[in-house]
Each structure stands twice: as structure tokens, then as C-alpha cells.
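Anyone else keep sequences and C-alpha cells together like this?

Example one:
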Amino acid sequence: MVVTAERLQARRRAAAGPPASPRIARRELALAALAAVLIACAMHWPIPIRLGSDVPRDLGDPLTQAWQVAWGGHALLHQPLDYFQANDFWPLRNPLAFSDALVGYAPAGLIGSGWQAAVARYDLLFMLAYALAFLGGYLLARELGAGRAGAAVAGAAFAYAPWRLEQDGHLHVISSGGIPLALFLLVRGYRRGSWRTVLAGWVAATWQVSLGFTLGLQLLYLLAALGAGVAFLLLRGRLRLPSRRVLAATAAGVALLAVVAALLAIPYVGVLRDHPEARRTVAQVETLSPPLRAFLAAPPENLIWGKATAGVRDHLRWVPEMSLFPGVAIVVLAAAGALARRHPRALRLGLAAAAVALLVLSLGFHGDGPWPYRLLYELLPGWQGIRVPGRLMTLASLALALLAGLGAQRLVSAARARGRRAAALAAVALVAAVLIEGSGFGLGERGATLAAPAHPRVPPQPAGQVGAPAPQVHLPLDTLDSRKYLVWSTDRFPALVNGRGSFRPRQFARLEAELAGFPNRRSAELLRQMGVRTVILHPGFVDGTPWAAWRERSLRGLPLRRVDRGGVVLFYVTPR
């Protein structure tokens, strides 16, 4: 049997054990961070020059999440012990826990005030979330053995995989950079025996969980699985027991993570108790479980594959959560990485197995067959709170990105045989290929120019509603309009009956039906009994709603006083 030099080197590396932790100089770290920020700005242009006026993608959840971050800063200053009792869905309990609360971004909410500051803050966090995803992927790939070029490809592949375009309206989903960052710090800390780095890794994991359980729960179970694997290797004698300082840092970090996760879970458990309609039923999860062809459907905004995959996408039940196209460039590079023998075999096979398993899990379940996701849903605590199985693509993308980084490093190393210039050109071309394939820029009307990703302007707060007595009801009660009311409420945070969450409270649904005839005696008396002080009607939003005929309804004998002011109509409710 002929043993090639490459195979001999691979065997020697395997016998020598895991590679040493690479040295990452401060200059490299600074350049990687700068590149991450510049790429985020370029990929989401013109948001960097429209801070405070425009938001990425649409006027839906970005407005709600801008309000959430603003509320976080307000709550830290004024009611830190009652953080989840926000000003929406008044008078229900803990309405901030009706969806992922982005608690980890609360310190940013301390900067600035009012709705324009809330929008500007959201825009910055949106771009920084992408930058951190790139940087975290870069650092983790470097720690696992990729060179600078391969790490740059891994960072780009994790942050800008094509499927992410459909999640641009969900800050709690794109804010995934804490996952690779935590893994980087933990792997590096345990390799080097640095208790400070280990503790920093657990702090990063805790921060990621504090952003929401949509990704936080995935990270918790990933850390548990990795911890079980490490424990097995320790028992088999394949790993040495860390120093006492590292063990102490581990115990402190795990305790911190467990305590924070438990404290954050308390209001969510209370919401499930108070609102049975918030539970994710088998039917709901199955409805949002994508079919296998979802991996061939790119978001319609995608520059390269949007139109090409329209035929597949048009047959999906729910396009926003079922467009899971991972990218051709990323998959090809990942396949090359899985075959790159210069890297440890266990690492390559582990990442490939994780990618396949996570891709299968992201399909959810369909019917009563032996779907692996169904086992997680039935057996694992907290898993029934996940509404959209397809969001497991976050972890699947991380595994593919790390493999793609190894594959890219293999190609760049081959190009280096022709000189440094050829290697540099290969590295730039590979990063550019990943970024272009994940771009949301579209072709202009004539096909010769690029159109920027959607960036709608946020409607300004009507001047007439400023200072209106609270509690308030805004009409119409439509969910999309309620998002505007929420971001406008960041000016003084008046109590609102309106709100927006991942489910529709039954009390709110009943109230909407009872207020359909407003202004009339029944609705006026109901609002009076509730303690509502002001009804704010937005004439520009009521066409096609039950309140379109509000001008034809008399106020005679009703406990209401009407004032037309500053673009809105105020109905002051006379208290008992």
C-alpha cells in the first residue's frame, strides 16, 4: 500500500492530539472587527445613513423590537424588579414576555429617548448583530484551525447565508453572534487553561440567552451536549482534568448561566399559566414545519437565487419561515472542508454530522412519523416553546460555515503554491462569492443597476397624541398598526391597551370585538369601567376597518369628549 505524504501528515496530526490554540494578535482582531462592521454597513446600505428614520426590511417586527429595547432601558432605570411589566397590553401581566424580550440589549436603551432614538438604536443594533455574527464565526474558525482567509469565509458564511434575508425583520434571530463567540472563548479557554477566558465564554453564552429563548434554548442544549461529550472523554482518559481555577471558573459560569436562564424563564412560565392560548400546539408547529424542498427556496430578495427559486418558493405554506436556502457556494466549500485532510478527522466528521442532524431537525415534523424533532418536542423541557423549527438553521449554518472555512483554507493553500498574490486573490474571491450569494440587493428596473434592500421610512409620531392621558387605546386595533403605536410610545411610555406579541391574548381578541362599534354606548362604558382615559383614533389608518364610519356615530349621552388635534382624533373618557 502506498501512503502519500499528505496521509502520513494527517496520521501524525491525529496521533499528536488536538492542535494547539492559535495565536490571534490584537492587530488581527482589530482588523477582523473593522472588516465585520464595514461589511455589515455595505450589505445593508443605506441604513447607515438613515439612522433614526428608516428600518431594515419592513414596518412590522422591527418597530416592535425597537420599542422592546427602549423599554429595556426605561425599565432598568425605573422598575428593574418589575422588568417584564411593560406599557403594552394594559392591564395584562408581564406582556413583555409575550415574545422574546431582547433583555441583553437593555443597556443600549439607556442611550437617548423618544421614538427617533428608538429607531436609530435599533438600526445600530441590527448592523452590529450582523457584525458580531461575522466576527464570532471568524474567531471560532480560527480557533478550530482555519487560517485568516478560511476564517473570513466562515464568518461571511455564518452571517450572510442566503436564508438569513427572510429573518431581517427578527432581531432576536439574527442576533446570533454570541453563539460562536461563546464557543470560541470556551474552546480557547479550556485549551489554554485560562480561567479568565473560560469565564468570559460562559458570560458570552449567558448574554446570548438573555436576548431570547428562540436561540437561547438551542445554545443551552448545544452546551449541554458538548459538556456531555467532554465528560465522556474525561472518563475515558482522553482528556486531562483542567486546573482548579478553570474548574472554579466553569462552576461559576454554569451557575451564572443557570440563574439568569431561570430568572428569565419565570415570567414566560407565568404567561403560559395565564394564557393557555400561548402554548405551541402540535398543529401549530406542524403547520410551520418546512418541507424538504425548503432548502431549495431562497428568499425573494436574494440577488442571485431569488428569481431562480421562485417556482419552489411559491409552493411553500409560509415563505418567511420556510425559505431555508443555505447557499451553493457555502455548501460546495463545506463539502471541500469535510474532505480537507489537513484538519483533524474528528473535527470534520463532527461538524458534518452536526450540520446534517440540524438540517433534519429544522424540518420539524409532519404527521406521526419518526421525526427526530418530534422527540425533542415531546421530551426536552422548554422545547415546546419553539414555534418555528426552521430557525434551527442558525446552528446548522454555523456548522456549514465552519466547514466552508476549512474548505476555503484548503483552496487558498493550494493557490499559495503560485505565490502570495494568487492566494490573496483566491481569498478575496471566495469571501466575495459568499457575500454576493447572500446579498439582498436586487436588480433595478432595467437590470443594469442594483436596488438597495428594503428600508421603509418610519411614520413620525402624530403631534396630537403627545401628552394624552393614559391608559390609552389606539384605533384601529390592527396588529400592524399596533407596532407603530408601540414605537411612538417610547416617548414617556404611556400605558397602552394595544400591543404585539407572538400570540394573540384572548382578552385582547374579545376587546377588539367589543370595540368594533366605537364610539357607541357599549364600548364607551366598557372603556370607562376598564379605566381607559383616552381613545386615540388615527383617521389615516381606519379605511376598511370597523372604525371607518366613526364620523357618523353620535356622541350624545356618551361619557366621551372629542378633540381633533395634530393628525389624530382624541376621545377623552369621562371617569366615574
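And example two:
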Amino acid sequence: MPYPREIYLDADSEERLISYMDEILNNHYAERGGHITDIQRWQKEYWAKSANTEDPQSTDPRKRGAQIIIPLSAIAIEAVHARNMTTRFGFKQLVSVEAVSADWEASERAVEKFLDTELLEEMRIRRPIGDAYLEATKFGTMIGKSGYERIVKTAVRVVGEEEQEFDVVVADGATFDAVADARFLMPHSSQDVKKATWCGEEHSDSPYNVMALERSGMFRPGTIIDGDNSDADPVNRSKLSAWISASTFGTTGSEGGRQVENTQAGLENTRPSWPDTLDWVELWLAFDVDGSGVDKEIVVHYHRGARALMSVRYNWHADLRRPYRTGVYFPVEHRWRGIGICKQNEQFQKEITTQHRQRLDNATLANMRMIRVSRLSGYGPNEPIFPGKMWFVDNKDDVDTFQLGEIYPSSYSNEQGSLIYSQQRTGVNETVLGMPQMGTPGTATSDLARIQEGNKKFDFIYQNFTEFTADIVMDIMSNIQQFGPRRIGYFDNVEGGDKVRKFLEMPLELVSTGLLIRIRTAGQQQNRILERQNWIQIAPLLNQYYLGLLQLAQPLGDQQLMQTILVKGLYAASEAMRQILEAYDVRNVDRIVVKELEEMMNGARPGANGQPAQPVLGPGADSGPQGTGTIPSMDFLAPFLNGAGGSGNGAASGVS
């Protein structure tokens, strides 16, 4: 479907809107400088790039001193991030669906498979989710955005003897993008995206992609494409082309996301010499666009340098939600930003790096022997030195050796002590890294206890990631319902597609609030692989349970009781087999399970002698005598119930 319609404001309203956005952006860029500086410093500490000792411009007085940086933060970050991503994407299942209403139980697996296909295969959500997770692990905060995109490109084909142009839709559907903390815009006085006065983000893209978005309807005609179209906005027609490659985010040049990205590019030695990009901001805010005195939720794409509106639309979400979701690595009370490993390790990395350099420099000096020669000994400055050389001097003290320092064993223990403090703060130790324990190894029981205690902190952090991902999945589901999936043919060509279509046709408030089907991210309890393992353990227990009931009921001689147990056992066996097959992703389950048995036990069978149909088994079933039509006769099971020529225990063991 196309983008929501544009709002074209009158000259007075447009000027009021631009002035308001300039004011709030000026205030925010003034208050966010310290946080941007922190992110740049943490990124440098993670990269751990040592100074170039050969650089003639270097001001470091220790020209030959140790310059190594111990990448303490990087060691912990990479271990935690790999663990998070493996736990989240180690299996093919990302989404777990649970029906709240019994009417939707048959649609659970169909909706689950649809979302897994849409997220993992179509949207390829693993990469942006990984970016958000990694930034949270580094800096403490993850920010994601679920939206909609429609990209149209023009193709040319030869038809007969003529060339014809036609448009091709190369992308159409819900999206998810990780938003860098340095690019996210929200006043520091706000604590929640939903309740903030305004929020948004900085964008940078190539002119080609901006042009494709304009042709697709994302931006107003004339945003970057020059032309004489009558419907093009004359304000924007020729302004933005002059701002390509010029940063326009902040008030004094490169600020925010561009500044952090330039720092990262410098660390990687990949800084572009000719950055062919266009910068603009996207803002979600409330503003009186028509002079009615009532603020309305709008979405604005704004080029600050040119003071040009690239697009203005009403908030198109039915619940007026903003598309941003935030999460933390480790929370800070009453703040929406969290603490990451770079902050946790900030002082320890500097301390251990300093101690390590001192130890290396001290060892270098301690191992550096020099020769002291008296001026009257007769030896010059170019005297060769080699093993076995004989020195003829007047005094034995004329030639002597001396060293510049001593080796101090305590320096290593001091460094290890600082490392222990770092491990206590971050929770990443040799056990998490899969390394052998330092010192005397403990017993297997003690190691297991250490692992269990260490997992408590990881489980707490991972739960924060799970809640963030669950919110994102629900937003994506709402966007799919509003704008449609990326492949509309899924409904007609994939098994269960009709059930998914029926679910998406329900009112938005029933879907987004989880009143019909509860959508979550698959955790350890919802994962299909673990579910299969659980069923392998549960199936023998079910068998033993019903056999035990038959053994206990047999001495009572109550045929009605034993018939009830057997009928219930038949139903339980059929239902258990259905869930086992679904856990193993077996197709056409209804062709394998005795579906007629389920229908007989949930439905009705014809009454005797033309009487009305009687229920087989269910709520309110009559417990009258055998043969009344309430409970089917179980005479064929008598040999098993009565022992079949064996003892009671042997008879019970023959029932399977």
C-alpha cells in the first residue's frame, strides 16, 4: 500500500512549525554534548587502538615505552554479545505464540510459522537486532524502530522495437531498524518515548536512495529531484541539492550520530574523503497544524540547514504510538538509559592498562644492562663487544655493568587484583569465557555452583533483552496488520495461511493488546527444541500414569470407572501425539493422528433405535449403567482388565 497522505500547511503554520523545531533541536543539541563525548570515549576504549610510536607528531615523551592497551571491555562485550545472540538465534524459532481464547488454539502454530518466516527470512531481523544488542552491551541502551517502507525503482525493457519504462516495487512492508544512541533525539527531561513531548532521530543517506524514496512517495515531490512539475513544492525544489555532503545536524557542524560515526571511521581507518550523503531529522511530535488550538500528533522529516520540510504527515498508527522502543543492559533507577560494560569497566581498563605498561617498562629496564667505562681505561665509544672479550684495564672498576631497574613480583599480583574487581563488576570471568580456572582447580560441584550463580546476572540482563525484543515483535505485527506482509501470496500458498489471514483481519486493538493470541519471543521454555526434549520425558510418564490408574481401579471392580479412565487415556494419547508431531514440525498432522477419535469424543454418536444423538464423553455426561448410550461399551477390553490369563500386574502391563 502507498504511504499515508501528505499534509501541506499554509505559510504561517509552516513557519511556526519550522521555528518550533529549530528551537527544540537547538536546546537538545546543547544538552546532549556530554553524552556524545561519553559514547566516543567508550568506543575508543572498546577499539583499544594504541598510539603510533613511530608518529613524528606524537607528544608522548616515552618514545620507546609500552603503548599497549588491554582491551578489557572488548573481551567482556564480545563474550556477552555472542552469548546473547546464540541464545536468541541459536534455533530457527524466534517467536512463541500462545492462544488466549480457545477459538484461536488451532491458529497458534500457523501464526508462529508466519512470523518466524516474515522476521527471519523476509525482514532478516537478525542483523538489526544484533546491532541493537551490541550497542546496549557496549553503552547500556538499545533503541529500535519498527516502521514501513515502500521502494519503487524504474526499469526499462525492450518490447517489440520500443523501449518501455515501468516501475518495480522492490520493497514493500514492515521494517525494523536499530537506531544508534548517538542518533536518537529526545529531551533529557523525558523518561518515556510514549510520554515525551517529542522524539525522533537523525538520518543520513545517499542522494540516490533519497531520490528513490521521493519517487516512492516517502518525500514530497521536488525534495531532491529538480524539475518543473506543477505539483512540486517550489520551496524544496532546488535547496537540498546544495546540502549534499554537508553535515546539518548540529549547530556547529558535525554533531550527534555523524560525529560518533566519524570517530569510529577514524579508528577503523575507513573515513571517507568525499562523503556523498544528505542529512535530515525525523521528528514525532504534537503540533497545532491548522490553528484550531488543539495539538495533533504528526511526523515530520525536516532538513535543518535548508529549513525545508521533506514530508509532513499525521501519525498513522491507530493507537498513536511512536515507533521507537528502548531497552537497557543494566538499568539505572528512574532513568531510561542504562549502564553498559564500557561504563562498568571504564576505570578498571585504565588501571590495568597502566599497571601492565609499567610492568613491561620495568622489565625492559631491568633487562637492559649497560657498560660503564672509565675515561682513562683506553677504550673508545665504538669498542666492539662479544662473548669472551678480554678487557685490559688499570683498575678493575674501570669497566663495569649496571642495570636501570629491578623486577618487582608484586606488580603482577596488583594487576590480577584489579582484574578480579573488573570481573566482579561485569560478571564475565574465566568460566564464562570457557577458560581453565586460574590457580588450584576446584571440584566439579563448586564449578557448577559458580556457573549457576554467574548465570543469575546473565539471566537478568537477558530478560531485559527479551522484553525489548517482545515489544519490537508486537510493533512489527501491528505494522504487518496495517500495511500487509512483504509477500501477500503467503496466505494462499502456505499451509495455515488462511488462519493467519483470519487473524490479521481482526480489529487492531485485539491483535496489538494480545487479547486473542499472545505473541512473545521464544525463550528457553517456549523453544521447540526444548519442547521436543520435554515430550521425550513426558510421554513415558503419561503411559505410567494411566497404567497405574487402571491397576488401582481394577480391585474395585467398577467397570464404569475403568471405562472412564480408558476413554480419557485414548483422548490424552491422541492429544499428546498431536503436540509431539507439532513440536517436530511434522506436516499434515491431521492425516497422522486418529482425528475421528477426537471428533467422536468431543462430538456425539447416533442414539440407539433412532433416538436422538447422545454425547459420548464430556461435561455433564450421565454416569448411568452401561448400554444407555452415555458411555460406549468397553466389552472388548475385558480381557485386558480381567488379566487375560495372567495376574493383575501382568494384565495392566499389557495395556499400552
